[in-house]
Design goal:
By secondary structure, this protein is α/β, with parallel strands linked by helices. Helix content is 45%, strand content 21%. It has an eight-stranded mixed barrel, surrounded by five helices. Strand 6 (96-107) and strand 7 (111-113) form a beta hairpin. The chain is globular. It starts with a strand and ends with a helix.
Length: 321
């Protein structure tokens, strides 16, 4: 039954973790703890909101806790590395026109830690802001090196998470680092996810405006992945729209998806925004995006994310060509 609370009616969402008793020597307290571990794994939106405990859940929780405990040491020891995924323009010449900076964790003990594992953990424990600042600093140093050595510069975009905007010290360091740099601001770009933007307060909107005023382009990432896509571009003047890769992966299977992609590109262009399609993996996807005037693409069809030295070599190679 719906619950009446003051003047608001709401329907509670309940979740259950279940421990199946096979060993009666286990204490009631322990059974409760294991059922609670199972409950934490419930994913809302599934058909059911209950799950049974299994030993693998406890092992996964221990692994996540171990990784969480090692994060600060990993940052101090520079185990986090910045990789660069090239973006290319679709102006008829397929030019290397920029890159997105992506963080990778390469541990000397555990090898490469999956971003799908540690990124959500960084966001949950708030450590993401320190890592984002680290990535931003590394990208700035890389661009400064290219600038000082007269290499060709291309814009590199850095991701900002929702948590970054609640860390005012991090934002101040970010802005001060750019101001104190001798490098032109147009070569640094920041990507804000649609879901992050919708949670930002007006003060954080001013932070984006301050970045804008420094000549820095702001990208709206994962466009179409949530429910607030159009309100985000209505409320703030983003420079570049990044199509969520879910559209691209479904492009060949669905005429409806193709129509939506065409409509989004047309709409973005009509309000002065460029469009990036990410997750492009094959020729059919590429040719469709070219034929419908998408501005830029990134994905494995052209290049996987590259370590800094390899990306620098690619810039030099493209210069010679």
């Amino acid at each position: 039954q719906a619950i009446e609370y003051e003047i608001t009616e709401f329907v509670p969402v309940l979740s259950f973790g279940i421990y199946r008793i096979t060993d009666k020597s286990v204490s009631i307290r322990r059974m409760g703890d294991l059922a609670d571990i199972a409950k934490r794994t419930v994913k809302y939106g599934d058909d059911s909101v209950y799950t049974f405990y299994s030993e693998s859940m406890l092992e996964k929780m221990r692994e996540e806790k171990r990784i969480e405990n090692e994060m600060q040491t990993a940052l101090d020891m520079h185990e986090f590395s910045v990789f660069y995924q090239p973006k290319v323009s679709l102006d008829g010449k397929v030019n290397l026109t920029g890159a997105e900076a992506l963080v990778r964790w390469i541990s000397p003990i555990h090898g490469t830690v999956s971003p799908g594992l540690f990124i959500p953990m960084l966001e949950e424990n708030g450590f993401i802001s320190q890592v984002d600042l680290y990535v931003g600093t590394k990208v700035k140093e890389f661009l400064e090196h290219l600038y000082e050595t007269n290499h060709r510069l291309v814009p590199i975009s850095v991701n900002l998470s929702r948590m970054d905007f609640f860390d005012k010290k991090m934002i101040k360091k970010l802005l001060d680092g750019i101001r104190n740099s001798g490098m032109p601001g147009q070569f640094v770009r920041y990507e804000v996810t649609e879901s992050a933007y919708t949670t930002l307060a007006d003060s954080d909107n001013r932070t984006l405006s301050e970045l804008h005023n420094m000549g820095i382009s702001i990208l709206l990432d994962d466009f179409g992945s949530g429910y607030s896509s159009f309100s985000a571009i209505r409320e703030y003047k983003f420079d570049i729209l990044k199509l969520d890769m879910g559209f691209i992966s479904n492009l060949e299977k669905s005429e409806r998806t193709r129509l939506i992609i065409r409509s989004i590109i047309s709409m973005a262009h009509s309000i002065g925004m460029k469009v990036v399609a990410e997750g492009v993996e094959n020729k059919n996807q590429y040719e469709y995006l070219v034929s419908h005037e998408c501005d830029y693409i990134q994905g494995f069809y052209f290049s996987k994310p590259l370590p800094e030295k390899e990306f620098a070599k690619l810039l030099v190679k493209k210069d010679k060509q």
